[in-house]
UniProtKB/TrEMBL annotation:
Alphabetized UniProt keyword annotations: ATP-binding, Kinase, Nucleotide-binding, Transferase
Assigned protein family: Belongs to the methylthioribose kinase family.
PANTHER family assigned: METHYLTHIORIBOSE KINASE
Protein name (record): Methylthioribose kinase
Gene name of the record: mtnK
UniProt organism field: Cellulomonas oligotrophica
Keyword Transport attributed: no
Record field: transmembrane: none
Enzyme Commission number: 2.7.1.100
Amino acid sequence: MTVPLLDVTTVPAYIAGRADLAEVVDATTLTVREVGDGNLNLVFVATDAAGRSVVLKQSLPYVRLVGESWPLSQDRILAEARGYDAAVRHAPDLVPRYHGLDVDRRVLVLEDLSAWSVWRTALDAGVATPGAARDVGRYVADVAFGTSVLGSSSEDVRAAVAASVNPEMCRITEDLVFTEPYVDHPHNSWDAALDADVLALRDAALLDEVAALKYRFLTAAQALVHGDLHTGSVFVAPPGTPGPAAKVFDLEFAFYGPVGFDLGALLGNYLLARARAAVLDAPAHHQAWLAGLAGETWDAFEQRVRDRWASHADTALTDGFLDAWLRQVWQDAVGFGGLKAIRRVVGLAKASDLQTLDGPERAAAARAVLRTARTWVQGRADVAGPADLPDLVLPDVVR
Ligand code: SR1
Ligand code: MG
C-alpha cells in the first residue's frame, strides 16, 4: 500500500489537520521547504510567520537515491518510530524533540534542528565540534543499556525483539555493507587508480572475516540499535549552544542487533573524515582531534555503561561478564567500522568526505581508508582499546 505523498503545497493543510501540532506552529502562516538530501525520504521544514518551525519526514515508496526502479516499503517509518520511542525513553536529550508518528500517512514530526549542522557537513568543512563524539557514545550506551537485558527484564526485551524486526532495511545493509563491495556488482564504482586496492579486498582471509561480521550482524540481537549511525545521522550544535553537542536522527534502520554495529558506523565514518583531513593537509591539531574521536566515543560509551551497571537488571550477570561484554562490543565495533568505511569507498551510497575531493586526493584518501579499514577488520582481536586502534595508513604519494 502506498500512502499519498506530501509536497510543499499540501504540508500546511496536513499540519492544520493535526490538533496535536497547534501549539507547535501556526498552520495558517506556514512557509514550507523540502530539504531531504538523504538517500531515502521526503523531509519538509515548515516555518510559521513567528519563526517557529517543525520537520515532517515521510517515507517514499522507493529508494530516493536510485529512483522508482528500487521500490521500498513506506513501513520503514514504523521502525524509525520505534527507534525514536526508545531514544526518547532512554536518551531523550540526545535526539530531536519527537512529536510522534502518523501511522496512516507514514509521517514523523520532529523538532527542526536546521540551526544545527549535519556532522558530516561540518567535518567536510574542517569544523571541530568538541563533545560530539562523547555525546554519541553516551547515546549508544543509554539506548543499548535500556533496550537490552542489561537494563530491562528478559520478558520485555524478548517482546521488543519480536516487535522490532526490520527485515527490508536490514537486507539493504546486509547487501550494501557485507556482500556487494566484495563481488562484482552494478552498485559498485571506484576510481580506476584504486583497481588493485579494491580487488585485493577479495582474498579469502579477508572474506572469512567479512563473513564472521555479517553473521554477527544477522544473529546478535543484543539491543535496539540505530542501524545506520554514520556522521550523516548526527546533528552537531552551533558553538555556545547549552546542552548536548550532538543529537542523533534518521532511525529507520533500527532493529535488534549488535551494539558494536552503531559504534562501528561511527568509527568507520571518523576514518573517512580523518582521511579527508590528511590528504587536504589540515592543521595538525584538527587531524589530532579527528584521530581522537574513536577514543572519545568509546570512552563515553564504556563509562556510561559502567555507571549504569550498578542498576543492571539480571544480577546473575557478573562484573566479569560486563568486562567480557565490553571487550566483545569493542572488537565488533572495530570490525564493523572497517567494513562501514570500505562500503563507502566501493559500494552504493558514497560519502561526501571523499566524493568532494579532487581526483588524486580522492584516490589517495580512498586508498588510505581501504588499507586502514582492512587492518581493523583482520586485526580486531588484537586491538585492545582505542589507544591500539591503527591510525590512518596514508600512501607515500598523495598527488
Ligand atoms: C539504498 S539506501 C543506501 C544507504 O543509505 C542509507 O543511509 C544507508 O546507509 C544505506 O545503506
Ligand atoms: Mg539515513
